[in-house]
Description:
By secondary structure, the protein is an alpha/beta fold. It folds into 2 domains: about 1-175 and about 365-380, Rossmann fold (3-Layer(aba) Sandwich), CATH 3.40.50; about 180-360, Rossmann fold (3-Layer(aba) Sandwich), CATH 3.40.50.2000. The chain has 14 helices and 13 strands.
Amino acid sequence: MKILHVFIFFSLKHAGGTCDLIYKLARAQKQEGHDVTILTGDYKLDNEYAKSLEGVSIISSRSYLNSLRLYIMPGLFDEKKINFKNFDIIHFHAFRTFQNIAVYHYAKKYNIPYVIDAHGSAPRHTRRKALKRLFDNIFGYKMLRDSKKCIAETNVGIDEYKELGVKDNDIILIQPPFPVEDFVQLPSRGLFRDKFKIQDKKVIMFIGRINWIKGIDFLVEGFNELIKIRNDVILVIVGSDDGFKPKLDELIKKLNIEDKVLFAGFCSGRDKLSALVDADIVVQTSRYEQGAWAPIEAVLCDTPIIVSNNSGAGEDVKKMDAGYLVEWGNNTELRDRMNFILEHREEALSKTRKAKKFIRENLSMSSKIKEYGKLYSEFVKKA
């Protein structure tokens, strides 16, 4: 089967969990014998990361207006560069992009079946509401209507598609697989702590893009309440700035806790695993999140987690009983959850280890990859 994955970025540093999922999904599909191609933009393209995906073709197109987050790729309309008609199935990752408009044109032209995997990008309520509504009226509704299936990662995702008019039988729930094999040989404890000289502290960690949607300001405020009752903790923020760090810096300075917060920068590979292994708690307090990708990675590193209960991430964690939930914006509850885990570590670790066993047995890439293959095959045969 010739599979085309479509996403505007190909950089772990810039695109985080979605890019990681595409990478590992493409790798698994290649190992199953499929011919896999990833079509992406050249904006912040990580060539070393792309080259490490052996056997998978990476096609990048010149991307413009990136500072405005429009990512216009006019080169996609040059058929000399990309032979779209050779693909059996197209898998769109994210929803409202110029890239999708172009590829949708060819999917229709050559009658290629496609699926849409919004990864949490379907809602209008987050930001740029007017622009999203304009996109939907001109392109989005047509794309959704003509897709073979819309893939949701949680029930929250299902509801988001429904709000855009997608019918129940046009939505399929596939919980994202996790490459559990990447977490078998974990780094020794202490490497991350030694690097940043925080050996004697309890580490509260956020890991991901430093973006407004991630709700790190709520975490900072909850952490500020925690240090009022204990002085042995440090907040470590791991990730690259996606435009929100100046606001965080202002808040941290206002609270006068600069000496209690460490920005560790972007980490990937073994460095990321070292960070997760050395954390006492990983916290994800997103304003919105489709799924609990980073927290589940923490669980696979035997690290307890806290997730806000207002999104698909909370749904994931609750379903697996993988960690602790907090009401978004409730600083006192967040403080108490963090303190409870630090004071009752064995109880928290027991919950974490049970969830880790469940993830390994039910959400591994090897167990979930067949769901994607079955979905693709259903429509390739009918094309």
